[in-house]
Amino acid sequence: MTNDRVPPSPEHRAAALASKAWPYEEARKLLARYPNGKPGGAPILLETGYGPSGLPHIGTFNEVLRTTMVRQAFHALSDQPTRLIAFSDDMDGLRKVPANVPNGEMLAHYIGKPLTRVPDPFGKYESFAHHNNAMLRDFLDRYGFDYEFLSATQCYASGRFDETLKSVLRHYDKIMGVMLPTLRAERQATYSPVLPVSPKSGIVLQVPVEVVDAERGIIRFVDEGDTIEQSILGGQAKLQWKVDWAMRWVALGVDYEMAGKDLIDSVVQSGKIARVLGAKPPEGFNYEMFLDEKGEKISKTKGNGLSLEQWLTYGPQESLAFYIYREPRKAKSLHMGVIPRAIDDYWQFRGTYPGQPIEQQLGNPLHHIHDGAVPTEALPVTFGLLLNLAGVLGDASREQIWSYLSNYVADATPENYPELDRLVGYALAYTRDFVAPTLRRRAPDAREAAALEDLDAALEKLGADASAEDIQNEVYEIGKAHFGKDALRDWFKALYETLLGSSQGPRMGSFIALYGVENSRALIAKALALPVTEV
Question: What class of enzyme is it (predicted)?
Fold first, then answer.
C-alpha cells in the first residue's frame, strides 16, 4: 500500500463515510482530527509498537495489520498522505529471560541492560533486539506491509529525541504530578520518569534523579554509592514506559496508535503527559487480547499461543488476516484449532463479496484484508472437506488428493485452481500433525448399523455418478427413518464417528461425492464388520 493510490470513486467515498465497519469508524477519528489536513501538508502518522524482549508473535503482527486497515480506510475518506511507523522499544532493559530461547544462562548475566546490548542467544545478530527486530521485519516484509521501521536505540542515540527529552526535564515536576498518584507508596519513593544508563554497569537504572540543567539535559543520581552527573541526551538515558510513550508521540508527531485492553491505564497516563509536553495525544482504540487454549493471555516471554510461523505452516496469510479482523473488541482464543474454521470463513465471505452492494462490501472483512482488490477465484470445496478427505486417506499425497477432487469437480487441476492447490498443501500438513493422531473409528450400535445398511443400499442404487445433493437427500431421509427428525444430530455424529473417526465432520453428501460412492460403501462395510455395540 502506498500513498499514490488511485482516489476512490464518489460512491465509494460516500459509503465509507457512513460505514459501520470498525476501520472506517477509526479512520473518521483521523478525519475529524485534521478536517483541513495536517499543518504544512505533513503526512498523518500512524504508529505501532513492539517490545523485542521475546520473539514476535501474532499479537505483534495483529497491531500492524489492524493499523494498516485503519490507514487503508482513511485513504478511502481523504486524499491526505499517511505514514506508518513500526517502532521497536529496543532500548528497554531485559527484565527476565524468555522461556522459549536458547542459552538462557548466558542471557541471565545481562538482566537490566538495554536489549540492543544483550547478545543474541541464537548467535546470528549483533544483539537479542537486533535478532527479534529482524524476525518482525522479515515477516512484515513477506506480508507486504508498507511501513517504516524505527529503533528506540537509534532514535535516542542519534539525538532525534533530544529536544523532547529536554522538555521532559523542563516539565519534570508536572510529569511527576501525573505519575505519582498512580503508584503505590513504596514505588513513589523511588520513582523517576528518567532512567539513566549506568556508566559503570551499562544497566538501565531504576533510581531517583534530580534535574540539574534541563536545557543541557543534565541530571544527578546515585550509582553504586557514587553521585553521578550525566546527560540524558544521545542515548545516555531512556524514559520510564508511560513517559517514554508520551515523549515518542510528541517527538515523532504520532496521530494514531491502538493498544491492547491491558494498556488502557497506560494510554490515559501517557495522554496526560503528552498534554503536559504541549501536544495532543494520538487517536486510537483499545482492542481485546488473544488467549491461548487455556484462556490465558498470550505472551512473548511465555511463548504460549501461536507463532506467526506456526499459523502459516497450516493456513494461508489471508486466513490469519481474516481472524485478526473480526471483532477486535472481543477476546478470542488463538490456538491450532481455530485455523480450519478461519480458512473456511474467509472463503465464505469471499464468495459473497462480488454480489454485494458497495455498502455491504465495505463491511465485508475481505474488503479490508485485500484493500478492496478481492481476488475472484472460487473454491469448489471447503477446507474442512479437504481435511476429512485427507484424514480418511491416511498418509496421502498431493496427487492422491487431486485424483479425488477430479471426481468431484470436472475441471479440477492445480493449474485451474491454484489457490485450492495451496489449501491442499495446508490440509495435508494439518491432517498429518493434528487430525490423524486423533482419529478413532468406533463400532456402530444396533440402530446405527441398521441405518448404515440402508445407506449402503441407497448408495448402490444411486450409482457412482450420483450428485452430492441427491446423496445428501438420501442421508437425510435415512436419518429421519431411524433416528427421527428431532434426533438427526445423533445420526450425523454416528456417521462421523463410525466412518471418519471424528466427532465432527462435513456435509456427508459432499464428502461421499468427493470420496466416491464405491469408496464410501467400502468405509461403511468396514464399520459394519466391527462388532456391533449394545444400545
Answer: ligase
